[in-house]
Fold this protein.
Amino acid sequence: MLANQIGYYSLILGLISSIIIIPISLKNYHQNNETIDRKIFSLSFFQFFFVLISFIGLVFSFINSDFGNETVYNNSHTTKPLFYKISGTWGNHEGSLLLWLLVLTFFIFLFLVKSKSQPKKYRILTLLFQQIIIIGFFIFVLKTSNPFNYLFPVPKEGLGLNPILQDPALAIHPPILYLGFVGSSIIFSSSLAAVVQQYISKSWAHHIKIWILISWFFLTIGILLGSIWAYYELGWGGFWFWDPVENVSLMPWLSLTALLHCILVLEKKTILTSWTIILSIATFILSVSGTFLVRSGILNSVHTFANDPERGLFILFFLFFLIFLSLLIFFMFHKNGNYEAVKINFLSKETSILINNWFMMYFLSVVLIGTLYPIFLEVLTNEKISVGPPFYHKLILPFLVPFLIFMTVVPYLKWIKSEFIKVRIEIILLFTLSFIVSFLLFKQFGFESLVVSILIPFTFYLFLITIKDLLSKNKKNFSQKISHFGFSFLVLSILLNSIFSSEIIINLKEGERFNFEGGAIIFNSLEENNGKNYKSIIGNFEISNDKNQSIKLMPELRIYNQPSIVTSEADIKTTLFYDKFLVMNSVKNNEYFNVRYQVKSFMIWIWISTLILAVGGLFSLTKRLYEK
Amino acid sequence: MKILKLLLIIIVFIANFAKVNSTENKDDLVNKISKNIRCLICQGQSIYDSQSDFSISMRLLIKKKIEEGLNEKEIYDFLKDKYGDWISYEPEFNKKTFILWILPILLFIIGGAILFNRLFVKKY
Amino acid sequence: MKNKILLISLILFICFCLVVLFKGLNNSNVYIPDTTNKIVKEFKSRSLFSDNEISSEKILVNSDYYILNIWASWCGPCRKEHPKLMELSKNSSVKLIGINYRDNFKNAKNFIKKFGNPYSFIFVDTNGIISIELGAYGVPETIIVNKDKKIIKKFVGSLDDKSLKEINSILK
């Protein structure tokens, strides 16, 4: 009870701080000095501090199973393990909004403290724009999504959290993801501030790059964690479904990646200024739109939160308010002037960045249009259609080929004129090698789709080129080489995984055996057990192969008490070359179990390559921080 | 060369673990179609992924249709006729959806034109 | 000047998006496929009480209206709507036909024994395919069919007083 009250009033204090900071900042803005009033730092700190206390208050309410708190009541249960009680704090709508506020307030405080070398007016404007977002969220939380509503009489037991959400990867997925896309709020606020101050310059780019890297790194890891969770927990052996909620996290990532490339250019030359601003604004707008799409109930998806039209309405208007605000600022203050007259040499790094952006924006538009079109169609014509994986694959895969080719060619663009001959031989050699490999693969194994078979040689080629770059003596741009290697490795792993994976689906009874080409599935026995808050039925399976080697797999069915749900937990044996994946489901009115056995090739490399991709960014980040 | 050695290693590893992925038998075709059909009572799952009664019955129905001799397209048409376009994850290309398919490509072309303008058109 | 045109068209486009999304929020998410005017195709199955397989063509005869009701012993809402079905069965202008969905014979027979049999015939749909072919996707569902075997109306979920009233007005 106490934690609840503290949490609530702390939130109010946070709102008060966030409002007070505005007139003080405005006054400081107009003063003729270059220092920021100490009061502003303190207020920004206290704003963060109060939100933190509020957040901790909610965490304690969850730990103590204080079911008087409506959020705890709806999302927790006494039998839940402690770790998941804590992570339950942000696994619901109200708590996750508190997490939004936490990251928003923390980042602006950090920004103020770490930007001492930047012009005062720019810093204050960044603060003011961020405050608009913060106050908007404070009002949203307090008015429509209060995590501290108290219930009388106090219920004795909670309604429980969905057991599918009781997973370690999913527990840390929201905080990491939020550091990513809520973190892009700083980029948004700062770019608007820079526009007003005519401060879009090399030094601004140099300064904002760190924030872009931080946001990008966490967003990449956050998406990775979400996919890992889907793969291990949801029992389908898939890791990406083009589900609206997944798309909603991918869109800011695409925009942020494009922005990251742009900022590398702007750091060195004052060009592409308008485009950089547009990307900075777009990334955060995409994040907020994502929040709207997921929480308002307008989309049908596996992982939407509880839907409430009032909340949807608020975010919708807040979102469009931000869009109109950015539009206004951009058109009122941005002077193109001298910026865009600079000629870009075709054979240059700038060209390669532009081409990267061109493709990134295409991929972004595919995902955006695919996600939004059904909504628009339904409102305008009352027809309902679904846009799923086939759409995304058909529009993205063919464009991956030229994209990969560009990625291999462009690092060499600058040198084409001078070292043409030497570079040409290496390129041709590697190109030929990739085609030989692909041809051998075609011959032996056959392929399902033409596009995929064209993609393979180019992906291989890029893969080899990036390895060569990584191993070369030239240590310049090392972080870029790591990330590009990670990216090519990721595309390669996904392709090989989709081609070489196989599955068998059969109904088996205890004691039965199923023979297939190359091995057999043996359903040895069933076991019953009791877990912390569920009853479990474990299937003892054996998969044997031609050479009479066998592995044991033990998928599990869990029958939870609160809420009463049955989940199916796959058993996965991971090696460097494949994952062996077995999941079983009971068939109603039957002693049979529906058994799905999958061999997923190179699965672990999908995770590792994404990690490498992110590490490249981390490398760049630490290099910058170390330099300072 | 280092790269050649690496390549050889890759080929050997892949050769050990590849399986043929085809829709030669009926079950594979059922799975292939099921992955593209929405489970109408679930929130965003295909009937391949879902274990609901509806999904199980649908998979059986699809198998029955394959055994009756319908090809893939005919099965999709049959299901869409019965349940509406919403049940298929692949949107058709017709009057109502051509914008969906064309717009991204249009944007790509426009982007290309803007790039071309920026890089190659002499402005003096 | 060019800037102004761009700005105005952008604002118009954004306002359009805002309106569409606003309207989209109010749209219900429940999807009921449109099955009116579809013909019920022939299906064959055994009855709950006898082994012999019978065609639906032989059962859907001699009545102005048929009510196909998809039910199962394990389905709670089916138990809830059962009294309404008993009431409907008293109406002589309609033939009530049950389709036992993904059920176990013993349980289904016990259900009928315990609560009464409103159906003039019960088809067994063990694997659910018959129901799916009728365009249903769960239990309970009730489909009103006219003498030309055309689907007039479909009710998803258990029948309540309101739907009963509607059925009665159709049957008149």
Remarks:
- Chain B touches chain C at residues 40-41, 53-54, 56-58, 60-61, 64, 82-84, 86-87 (CB under 8 Å).
- Residues 15-23 of chain B have pLDDT under 50 and may be disordered.
